């Protein structure tokens, strides 16, 4: 799966909460709730703080892009070139003709 840049995704606004949450191990919704709760008390200060956080987030993502982690799937059968036993049985079953069941 190709992960799109946080700044270009449709479901985020500059990707600030998600980027900070990912970097510090906090769920992004906790940060979103904090920003939305504080927005009722001082909207200009929260908007300014959000944009002020967007600048270092954008710079850090540009300078040190996040690479997706490699999956830890076993590749032992692929390395030897031998098919798995289950795949061999399925291949045998698919070669046998299917007979209709009598009622």
Radius of gyration: 25 Å
User: So what's the overall shape?
Assistant: elongated
Which stretches are poorly predicted, pLDDT < 50 over at least 5 residues?
none
For the sheet with most strands, the description reads: none
Helix tally equals 5
SS strand fraction: under 5%
Q: What is the number of strand segments?
A: 0
- Series of secondary-structure elements, N-terminal to C-terminal: HHHHH
Structural class: mainly alpha
Q: Estimate percent helicity.
A: 55-70%
Rounded to the nearest angstrom, the distance between the terminal CA atoms is 48 Å
Average pLDDT for all residues = 76
Q: How would you describe what is shown here?
A:
Helices cover 56% and strands 0% of the residues. The protein is mainly α and 103 residues long. It has a domain at 6-63. The longest helix is centred in the middle third of the chain and has 21 residues, at 43-63. The two termini are 48 Å apart.
What is this entry, summarized?
The protein contains 5 helices and no strands. With 103 residues, it is mostly helical.
Topology:
Blueprint: H1 16-24, H2 28-39, H3 43-63, H4 76-80, H5 85-95
Helix pairs in contact: 1-2
């Amino acid at each position: 799966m190709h992960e799109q840049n946080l700044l270009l995704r449709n479901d985020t606004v500059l990707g600030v909460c998600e980027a900070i949450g990912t970097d510090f191990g906090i769920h992004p919704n906790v940060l979103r709730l904090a920003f939305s709760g504080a927005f009722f008390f001082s909207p200009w200060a929260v908007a300014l703080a959000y944009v002020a956080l967007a600048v270092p987030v954008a710079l850090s993502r540009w300078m040190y892009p996040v690479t997706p982690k490699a999956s830890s799937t076993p590749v032992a059968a692929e390395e030897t070139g031998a098919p798995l036993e289950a795949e061999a049985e399925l291949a045998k079953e698919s070669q046998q003709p299917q007979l209709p069941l009598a009622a």
